[in-house]
């Protein structure tokens, strides 16, 4: 889509601001991966973004093998033999046999061991009865087994040539296991993004220092740093910028020169002491500002040279909501991954909203619970202030209320975005 003209009047009505879906469309349209690639050992690849196809060079597993400790035999021999088999081999994992089973014969076999030639079924050892007679060893296999029981076929997991994983995948433990099963010990991944994290405001102090009248501790830095680190990026802390135009502009220029992303919090409005917005306009380009959402209206997106700029609101709730909805998918795309969409599901509301402002999408802090019947319900945190960290701490996710909704009745289905589906565990 074509981006709307930039909105410069912070007193415009919400219907004149960018809607949530319009903001997402701008981000999707303007972003491409910027990270280079590197080859690393598989044991260091957890949570890294894959930059190559991973294909199986051979079948996995490579040969038919036993899924249990037991006895391998030819299924067609069971009925003629009456389940009475002569034991003629013992096969352990890692020690395959090349000797074909004779008719009416079985092999003692252990989990993971390669099936002997001719065998196609395995009986579990606890279901069988050993029998010795005249110096010979036999096993009695009960009836009822299906052909191929307790056996893993060659290529059952993955066939040779199958593409297991494609570029853009953030590697999970199970993905590493899949790669290891192919025998590959190194992978090509995208390099970690470099993000410069900036707090702004003369009233902001870092924990560990005493507070003076009118000052607050910088909770946003620790919130956003942890959110960035969950995205597996390199974070540079630029500290707290004081509210002077020269200092803010110089710091942003310097950060943009050596970072992939500059992420700021605070100073995103049009007030006389809010210098982030004016500095961005002087140093680069502003592609997005002023959204019809609550919380998070002054969210900014732009660029300084080739560096992406993300300006988040100063209130902690708004900062976290904007990071999860907008900054997180931006970071993913720049890192070589997909544009991350939140996981959503419908759940009955255990609250009421008699009247909601139209033309604005709202995100409540939501708590999942169960009613008397065991049905999962969503409760709304009882206070709406965007500076209340308690709501973030107690919430299980966000309740998303669309622009066209003007009221919510108890029991009405609402859309729930779990934090677990937004990368928070």
The class by helix and strand makeup works out as alpha+beta
The fold-level CATH name of the largest domain is Molybdenum Cofactor Biosythetic Enzyme, Chain A
**Proper CATH architecture of the largest domain:** 3-Layer(aba) Sandwich
Mean pLDDT equals 92
Query: What gyration radius follows from the Cα positions, in whole Å?
Result: 31 Å
Number of domains: 4
What's the arrangement of secondary structure elements?
Blueprint: H1 20-30, E1 37-41, E2 54-55, E3 65-66, E4 70-73, H2 78-81, E5 84-91, E6 105-109, E7 121-124, E8 129-133, E9 136-140, E10 151-152, E11 163-165, H3 173-181, E12 186-190, E13 194-200, E14 204-205, E15 216-217, H4 219-230, E16 234-241, H5 245-258, E17 261-265, H6 276-283, E18 285-289, E19 293-294, E20 300-304, E21 307-312, H7 316-334, E22 345-348, E23 361-370, E24 376-380, H8 389-394, E25 397-401, E26 413-418
Parallel strand pairs: 5-6, 13-16, 13-17, 14-15, 17-21, 19-23
Antiparallel strand pairs: 1-12, 2-11, 3-10, 4-6, 4-7, 5-9, 8-9, 18-20, 20-21, 22-26, 23-24, 23-25, 25-26
């Amino acid at each position: 889509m074509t981006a709307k003209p930039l909105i410069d009047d912070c007193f415009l009505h919400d219907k004149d601001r960018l809607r949530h879906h319009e903001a997402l469309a701008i981000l999707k349209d303007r972003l491409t991966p910027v990270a280079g690639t590197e080859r690393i050992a598989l044991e260091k690849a957890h949570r890294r973004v894959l930059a190559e196809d991973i294909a199986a060079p051979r079948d996995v597993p490579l040969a038919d093998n036993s899924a249990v400790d037991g006895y391998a035999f030819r299924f067609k021999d069971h009925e003629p033999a009456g389940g009475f088999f002569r034991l003629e081999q013992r096969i352990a994992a890692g020690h395959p046999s090349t000797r074909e089973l004779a008719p009416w014969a079985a092999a003692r076999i252990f989990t993971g061991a390669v099936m002997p030639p001719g065998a196609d079924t395995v009986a579990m050892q606890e279901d069988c009865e050993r029998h010795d007679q005249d110096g010979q060893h036999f096993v009695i296999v009960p009836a009822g087994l299906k052909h191929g029981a307790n056996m893993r076929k060659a290529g059952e997991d993955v066939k040779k040539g199958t593409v297991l994983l494609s570029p853009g995948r953030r590697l999970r433990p199970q993905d590493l296991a899949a790669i290891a099963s192919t025998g590959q010990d190194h992978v090509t991944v995208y390099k970690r993004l470099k993000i410069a994290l900036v707090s702004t405001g003369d009233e902001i102090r870092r924990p560990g220092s005493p507070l003076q009248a009118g000052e607050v501790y910088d909770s946003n830095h620790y919130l956003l740093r942890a959110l960035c680190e969950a995205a597996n990026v390199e974070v540079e802390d630029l500290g707290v910028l004081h509210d002077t135009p020269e200092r803010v502009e110089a710091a942003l220029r310097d950060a943009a020169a050596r970072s992939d992303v500059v992420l700021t919090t605070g100073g995103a409005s049009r007030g006389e002491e809010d210098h982030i917005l004016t500095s961005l306009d002087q140093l680069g380009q502003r592609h997005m500002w002023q959204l019809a959402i609550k919380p998070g209206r002054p969210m900014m997106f732009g660029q300084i040279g080739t560096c992406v700029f993300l300006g988040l609101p100063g209130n902690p709730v708004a900062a976290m909501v904007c990071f999860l909805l907008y900054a997180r998918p931006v970071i993913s795309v720049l890192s070589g991954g997909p544009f991350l969409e939140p996981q959503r599901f419908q759940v009955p509301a255990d609250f009421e909203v008699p009247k909601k402002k139209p033309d604005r999408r709202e995100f409540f802090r939501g708590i999942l619970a169960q009613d008397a019947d065991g049905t999962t319900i969503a409760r709304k945190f009882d206070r709406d202030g965007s500076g209340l960290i308690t709501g973030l701490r107690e919430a299980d996710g966000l309740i998303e209320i669309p622009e066209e909704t003007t009221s919510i009745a108890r029991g009405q289905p609402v859309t729930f975005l779990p934090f677990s589906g937004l990368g928070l565990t």
